[in-house]
Amino acid sequence: MKVEDTIDKNDSGEQDASTKLYHLPKLQIFLGIFLVLAIFLSQFGAPANAYISTRSVVVSSSLPSANILQDFQFDLLGNPALGSIMFEYCSNTPLLELPCVPPIGYNSSGANIQFQSGETSFSIHPNTALSPNIVILTRPPTPSTIGTKNYRLGNIINTSQSKTTTYVRIRTFPTTNATGPHSDFGAVAYSTQNTVSVAVYVPPFLTMCSGVTVAVDCTSSVGSVVDMGELSRTDANSAETQFSIATNSYNGYSALLVGSTMTAGNKVIPALTASSISQPGTGQFGVNLKKNTVPNVGKEVSGVGSGAPSSGYDQPNVFRFQQGDTIASSPISTEWTRYTLSYLVNVSPSLPAGRYAATLTVIATTTF
Amino acid sequence: MKRQSILSNRKLAAFTSAIVLASASVLPMLLPNVAQAAQMTRRRVEMSSSIVSSTATGDFVFQLPSGTIVQGIEIEMVDSPLGSYASAPSFVPAIGTPTATLLDATSTSTLSGTTGTAVNGDTFRAWTDTTAFTATKTDGTSFTGTAGTALNQIHLVRSSATSETLDATTSVHAIRVGGLTNNATANKTFFARVRVYAASTVNGAGQFNGSIIHDGTVAGSTAQVLTVQARVQEVLQFCIGAETSAIVSAWSGVGTSCTNVTGTLVDLGAIDSSVATVSPISSGNNSDGIAMLRTNAVNGATVTYKSIQDLTAGGSNRGSLKIVGQTCGSTDISSGSKTDRCFNSTLAGNPLSATSTEGFGMRLVNVDTASETPTANLTASSPYSSGTDYSWDDTGASVLIASSTSASEKVVDDEAFQLRFAARSALTTPTGQYSVQAQFIAAPVY
């Protein structure tokens, strides 16, 4: 009897689906049930004792005794029931056939799960806390799926030994506590290393040059004497010199002006101990570090450095001279800054004749 | 009377002699035609495979004890070397479409793998008549059951008028029979009864006409396949450190291993703003960084580094070349501060050759040429593979510097590389002792 003979047809000649199953031969029904059962049972009985494939562990730190994260990734090739995963850490070998020697100083008893994918719903099994080198992930047994799994374990203390390899034996079990025969197995490894240190020393420098004129970077310096000629009693007398400074002192520098006002023996041109503008006919000796218009002398600072004239010496047309004053400074390390030191000399009609001179020194200091 | 008696005796003797002579001449024609076949020596069958159910060829090797014309050869596959049988033999090779090939001094022996020489050293003699045999299968000669149910016999037939030469010492005749399939049961012996005929015709009973000239039985067997299983354990040997240039140079020799790596500091000494200072340098400790990797990870391995963050400092970029405890601003090599106590750097590589540059970095040199390397699969990753530019990541992120994952064979056997560091200060780089630490991580994928 042909199978087709058992299939009813409706009035239009189409097969009645509801009656097709009813009329299927018993053998076909039996085979169908058998097939469904076989597929269902295969979910639990698929190949066990297989090798875990494409497996790796990436640690967050290779430093001995560091508290690290471990990112495990591996592929399961079969789909047996999966109730637990054991990570066993050994210092001697990944081979299951050989006893495992726990890495010295290693401690995974406080491990936690920070991420899981592929096969999920795992938690840390209580037995993990009982061993320094075994972590067990547990869940109710369910069929596993073929494919890539990822687990990030945290709060694991690396071995205290440097330049050593730690092997991690990974096993899957159908049981929830990693007992009984395992299903799949594989091993990975990572190593601990000391750090590599690189050290350099940046030597200190504070460089300054002075002269009638100097290059910004002190590659040249010209002159050390300024002759102001015959001093006028009716007009302001002026002159200028330059100095340039750079330093890699983190604290920068201070430039002090040391010396005295112009004198000729015991005859003195009064120094401007207080800031003042030029007053021809009045005895005045002062300096500043600005470009002035009255009198027309001086230049602004130049260069890429961060130095600047100090208070009292930083206003155009305002002069001052106080022995030991800081006339310029930089609060930080700085490249070259060139200053133009402008001199103002006014004399009173009563100033005795003579050769007046002043010797001034700029001293740069810093604290390294 | 006496003379008559003597005459009678003479007649009787003559008659008796005549009868004897006549009988002697006729008797051979009256007796059955029974021949005694000579047994072939140094005979054997060399099967190309003993694996159950596998297709195979059989080299039937034998010595002809006397010269003879060979027009027919009968090969009967049986379970026993002797006797007849009523049912098909159980463990003999199945005969598909048989083929026959004459072997000679130019033929490659199935088992020895050498030309013209069998596995025991016997030499294949060239057949005097090289006419090929035609092979057919039929019921065995010793089969007594129903015809057509024991097709375990091969007939090799040809036309020949040339006598094959007898074999002596180690000279053998050999013929290769193909189209066989081993029995499905392991460790079973079968026998092949080989018969040589001068005749080339077969009678109605499926047997060669004429007498067996030579015969002999050989034996073969199926066998279990021996599986040898071994497991190679995962291997990872990785070391990183700092060694003098002399030690590093010595790594081109044999015997290099991680035991040679003991240092951990690369000291660049005093640097200035006029030119980049590059390791190894005698004003420092004349050392380069060096690393060596060995792993049998079939999917390759990567080497990454992380700058150690200075936890005593605030801010970011705490993995820069810096004075310990100092807080850094931006460390971008093109825009970062040159007055703080942190060296600038870049992820994109910089030769540190421009004036006013402040920078620090690392590049890899002599990758897998700095050691005795059976493999050369490790390569430096960009930008650390640059021949001129130095890079550094001071954020503490994991940065790839070398890998074998792109190699066709990804395992790495004692491949080393040097870590070349360089630093250049700006004019404003504050004086002081700068340092940085990094950890290096090897990650094999098995």
Care to give the gist of this entry?
By secondary structure, chain A is mainly β.
Notable features of this structure?
heterodimer, A: 368 residues, mainly beta, six-stranded mixed beta sheet, four-stranded antiparallel beta sheet, 2 helices, 23 strands, 7% helix, 40% strand, disordered N terminus, B: 446 residues, five-stranded mixed beta sheet
Would you write up a description of this structure?
The complex is a heterodimer of chains A (368) and B (446). Chain A has 368 residues and is mainly beta. Helices cover 7% and strands 40% of the residues of chain A. Chain A is built from 2 helices and 23 strands. In chain A, the strands form 6 sheets. In chain A, strands 1-10-9-4-7-6 form a 6-stranded mixed beta sheet. Chain A has a 4-stranded antiparallel beta sheet with strand order 2-3-8-5, with no helix packed on it. With 446 residues, chain B is mainly β. In chain B, the strands form 5 sheets. Chain B has a 6-stranded mixed beta sheet with strand order 1-13-12-5-9-8, with no helix packed on it. In chain B, strands 2, 3, 6, 7 and 11 form a 5-stranded mixed beta sheet that branches. In chain B, strands 14, 16, 17, 19 and 22 form a 5-stranded antiparallel beta sheet that branches. Chain B is rod-shaped. Chains A and B meet through β2, β10, β11 and β22 of A and β14, β15, β22 and β23 of B.
